[in-house]
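Let's do one together. I've listed all components of the complex below, 464 residues spread over two lines.
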Amino acid sequence: MQHKLTTPVTREDLAPLKAGDTVLLSGIVYTARDAAHKRMMELLDKGEELPFPVEGSALYYVGPTPERPGEVIGSAGPTTSGRMDAYSPRLLDLGQAVMIGKGARNQAVKEAAVRNGAVYLAALGGAGALMAACVKELEVICWEDLGCEAVRRLKVEDMPLTVILDPHGGDLYHSGPAAYLDSLN
Amino acid sequence: MRTISAADITAAVARLCVQANTRLPMDVDCALERAHCTEPWPLAQETLNLLRQNQEQARKQKLPICQDTGMACVFVELGQEVHIEGEFEAAIHQGVRQGYGEGFLRKSIVGDPLRRVNTEDNTPASITVRIVPGDQCVLTVAPKGFGSENMSRLAMLKPADGVEGVKRFVVETVKLAGPNPCPPIVLGVGIGGSFDKVAALAKHALLRPLDEENPDPFYEALEDELLEEINALGIGPQGFGGKTTCLGVTIETAPTHVAGLPVAVNVSCHVTRRATEVL
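Okay, and this is what the predicted structure of the assembly comes out as:
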């Protein structure tokens, strides 16, 4: 099933999503990889504000290639999300609603997604040119020194994503391969 | 004796960095096309279709196929009758600097593994040189992304583990990697040699085009068996489920010690990149 969503999203918006469904996501998406996540944790430890409104937000784990003159963004596919596992539960508990990346997450992230009614969506790994086409605006909002890992505010339109972890405990990385193997019997 | 200038090497490496990152090698492209035709699972077929569309988009927009434009692995087959005018390794690093800069490629290298400050120009390259007969210099740039590199593994098996032990280890590596290395993957497998040699074999195996047979029928058969076993795991494109988990397995071997059976698996993704120029 395909869903159209616009950020920021509410728990109610995400409730109908099931692992294996597809999503066309529009609105504002913030980029952050390991280094930016680490700095966000340091801010929180000091009792300071995050560099973006966290409630209902979507974070995309991506480090794009530099944009050519006149272009909005370079190639922009997802990085491996597992490196953010150490940080995601804390952000989800603070209101982050959507994680976008690729690859497996740990049990703590799955539990935090269920607890908060959040979702983990996969962008197409290695399909950076296709993902770039959905990005309409880009602005570096902080930590420019991190280069491709700086936090960017992206305005996206109909970004094609697949639901991996849904708010009900579903996990496409288990159910997808299992369904295919069942179909062989 | 033939003279090749460092400037020519720099220019070639720069060209190859851009070419490799924006155009898939023909054999990988064909393997993806074939997989798309033979994939029975609808979601997997759709996913493979999108991966092909991505290549089209990259070509049209002059964008890198993948945003992880990788560590620049440069392989050189240097004819022993070649004299390099200028500094050889510096010329290669300069080529990477130039290619990644002019080509708007991502700079993904940190100068120190623990202090982690980006070098800002994707240098240094990882250089492997082999001295060969002749008066040519064959340069191959194979940018390697780390989503897949991180899933690679090495084991010092016992000789008693034999071919079954090797197969178990390779298949286990793919299972452990699951969706992380952006399947459909390509596997370079090294068997034999020593601890360091076997990893180099696995990496070098990724340079062999997927449509080129292993010259040794024994290992050609082993590659086929591994591919079949891996594609029976059901991981599928992107790990969403399906038949196409792996596009190809290439094996390289070396003599080893009576007491050992080293095996290394270098995992690569559906964007397995390489480009070659002969000087």
